[in-house]
Amino acid sequence: MEESPGEGSIDKSRVLNVTPLRTLTPVFSSPPNFNSFPQGSPPFVCVPPAGPFPPGFSPFFPFSGIQNQSVPSGDHTPISSAVPINSFRSPEPRSAREANGNAGSSRRAYKARGKKEKNASPDVDLDVMVENILQSYNLVEFEEARRYDGDKDSVGHVLLVFNLLRRQIAQLEDSKEATLSKRPDLKAGNVLMTKGVRTNVKKRVGAVPGVEIGDIFFFRMELCTIGLHAPIMAGIDYMSVKISLDEEPIAVSIVSSGGYKDDVEDDDGLIYSGQGKEMDQKLERGNLALEKSLHRGNDIRVIRGIKDVGNPTGKVYVYDGLYRIQESWVEKGKSGSNVFRYKLGRLPGQPDAYKLWKKIQQWKDGSIPRTGIILPDLTSGAETLPVSLVNDVDHEKGPAYFNYSPTLKYSKPVPRDPFVGCACNGACLPGNENCDCVQKNGGYLPHIVNGVIVSQKSVIYECGPPCRCPPTCRNRVSQGGLRVRLEVFKTKDRGWGLRSWDPIRAGAFICVYAGEAVDDSKAQELAGENEDNHIFDGTRIYQPVEVLPGDLNNAPNLQYPLIINARNAGNVARFINHSCSPNLFWQPVLRGNSKEFDLHIAFYAIRHVPPMTEFTYSYGMVPPEKADHGKKKCLCGSPKCRGGGPRIAFCIKMLLLIIRNDDPQYDYPVLVGGMVLTIMAGKLKFLVNDRPRAANNV
């Protein structure tokens, strides 16, 4: 720049050279015959860009237009001396600012405000949502005893509430109604632990009450809430024990999920790497606890992390039982640093868990055959995945003949609501106010990712043929066929049953009930002929599975009686046996079809179901007016069985245990009383008849 422009108008054409900032040297013009650097003064004078300037110095562009250098006024405000260069811009004319309502002229700021307003959402009171769930389970005040020492019921309740809350948070996130957390699992776990809804808080060596070998989990936070493994991230959990006057750490559990390249896993053992990846590992914290456990020889719980086939970025955590450390050493790891290595061996006599997973994978790969297989695909290609027919119990060659059909057929028209269909071209999106199907479901999609249902509803609405959305729409979950590898197998005492080779997460879709819809008179006729072993009866009394008994707000509510006969034609659902403690629940689903709705029955998982675990659902209770028909002897074997014997014996025993006040002299009378009640319940034919209820697939 040759010289500073004068006051008044600015001639920008005077800018002749453009030079990088790092090469510029400040040059200020001065009046003629004026010595810019008087004797004794420094060669440079640092002043704010807007002045005031010492005598002999003039302002430079873009501050040359300032009329009053010492006291800025009007549109020009004082600028501090420490201001970034990119914060300066040419002053905007007053008229333009007034026309914009003094809202500012930055396009970036405008876009940011618009984005913020677009994403603004009404506040969702998470505390109210949590309190409603806790009140439903009567867990507002979780007992202190169950918090420190749990049992199967307390573990089941905590996991059920955790997954229900996690799915509801995920649904809100999915619909963009609220930004609660990018990790609904962490948010749900933190909320429950803050509320005190957790169990087995007291750390312990060995087995955890209420947790069985082979139990599966899809989130590390689940391990924490039930006391199986406390750290959310760390792979080693340890506690301090007192040795004489000192304390030392010992390991109580480890998670082996392939986080370290040096880990080596086997069916009944593994070589586990210590903590620390960046440099040589130190004998401290978890590493020290493992070393101490080697010398003490205490049991250590091992949880195996396995890749989730349904979610490539996730893992399934399998409790593999108790191990002991056999030896330890230090070696150079693959990263070049010193790594502590611990060899653990599985204690004998425990049920298979991780070993079973590896065997199933070999079945899928075809490296080893499935023993006892009768048919590789019972469906003859009617399903998207094959369904094996297996009998490794006796020599029976299969169930009675039937036609495999994955659809539900109506023999005559039934009353239905009018339906037009949605106009979603791509897919139905959560929170879409213009989607009729979403609005019929209360403004939400009933399912989150992976086809997981949020909660049990009286009815959910799915898209149908009149809708423009594609078959892959998330609101067509029950129409996509089987998603997991199933097998029909022969049980020991309940006929044929159904189970999965794959792990099932809570809320996952299993299948629909296919067959022929019949009226009540036809069902009564089949019951009289003892041919009702493959019937779904929607007229029975059902308790909701995700709320306390007696709260029927979310119980299944059929708009008209639906009875499905799968005796001659049906799908895999006809093999699902009854249990008074089921792991599946049925959900009414209305599908839009030609300006009306078709009613279907879909099955979902109540809780996580490990591989090779039989699927069961509650057949419901026979109404009083039908007490003479359809009531059968229950063989589910659950302590909560409603069929008589086991349930009565269990309840009386618990009552006597309370009355005796832990006096050992009553142990024998309690045992005898329970046996007598069990025998009496089996003999009272007015309670149940002789037909087995759970053996519906003979």
- CATH architectural arrangement of one domain: Beta Complex
Which percent band covers the strand fraction? 15-25%
Give the CA-CA distance, first to last residue: 99 Å
Q: What is the number of helices? A: 13
Number of DSSP-assigned strands: 24
Q: How would you name the CATH homologous superfamily of one domain?
A: SET domain
Q: For the record, what CATH class of one domain applies?
A: Mainly Beta
GO molecular function: double-stranded DNA binding; histone methyltransferase activity; zinc ion binding
Protein name: SET domain-containing protein
InterPro entries: H3-K9-MeTrfase_plant (IPR025794), H3K9_HMTase_SUVAR3-9 (IPR051357), Post-SET_dom (IPR003616), Pre-SET_dom (IPR007728), PUA-like_sf (IPR015947), SET_dom (IPR001214), SET_dom_sf (IPR046341), SRA-YDG_sf (IPR036987)
Keywords: Centromere, Chromatin regulator, Chromosome, Methyltransferase, Nucleus, S-adenosyl-L-methionine, Transferase
